[in-house]
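Shape is hard to put into words, and the shape of a protein is harder than most. The fold becomes a row of whole numbers, each drawn from a learned catalogue of backbone shapes. The outcome of that step, for a single protein, is printed below.
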Amino acid sequence: MPDQTALRRILVTGVGANPGFGLARSLLRLGHRVVAVDANPLAPGFFLDDVLPYVIPLAKDPDYPEAITGLCRALAVNAVVVGIENDLPPMLDLRPRLEADDVRLWLPDSESVHDCIDKARFHHVLTEHGIPTPRTWDPEGLDLVPDGVELVVKPRNGHGAQGVHMVNSRRHARVLCELVPAAIVQEHVRGTEFTADCLVDRDGRASTILRKRDLVKNGCVAVSTTFEDQAVHDAVVKTLQAVRAQGLSCVQGFITDDGIVIHELNVRIAGGSALAEAAGADLVGQMVRGLFGEPVDHDQLGYRPGVFLTNYLETLRVGDVAELDFAAAPKGGIV
């Protein structure tokens, strides 16, 4: 248990998805007070013991900024940590207002964030830095795709494996590009899939915890095992440097017969980060230190290889919807 004087009230967004849910649970275990927010009144994170649950508008809703800032003021929130990609763009805009209210937010600069959440921009940055990444085409460039290449059609700004389709022909890809919003097409890379849980301090030093994605279902890791590999570590660190990462993030890629291929960097904690902590890395604890301007102790981010995690769907709670009493952040925020 940390020093009680260092305990904070931290607002976590996106507690309906695995990353935000897991982050809220880790913060609670460390003794922090968690304000859990989501647009879904049945978000699983609302049912964690001891959270303060609040329903907020969707990130694209014009009332979102006032809901977040109003909650932070009314509940004396010390910091906000984003748990889902949708909240990143509006949170960047809110950063000056939050900081003026002495609410901490630890994100890279705006250009860096957009380089990561926009898959076409991410491909461009990695290519510029000589980092192997899947070949990528826009819908107008499908004639350039070589014959016989397996393809993945996905939203350019998507997340959580939503709207992702595997196809074997340019013809099928063209059809899907008409259906998937703001689609891009990438080469389907095969190999050993991995995630790196990463924390980059304010001086640019990175710690990484590597884990194989042994079994993935609907974009979420179901079975994972920690491992060590210097080549993978180096590729991940080079990727973090290329996008000027800061704070928490997770990098995904493949170990192929031809080398390491990086295909994604999420500017948030990963859904399977509980494995990093089980393997000995104080990932969330050190994130909180950096969030509040304290030095990150990278010695506390070492981990043991060969530690496994297995996930399964579990019924968290059943009940009568009419009996729910989660507070909703009203339009215009809380005063």
In short: The chain has three domains: 4-107+316-328, 112-116+190-310, 135-187. DSSP finds nine helices and 15 strands in the chain. Residues 1-5 have pLDDT under 50 and may be disordered. Residues 135-187 form a domain with the Dna Ligase; domain 1 fold (CATH 3.30.1490).
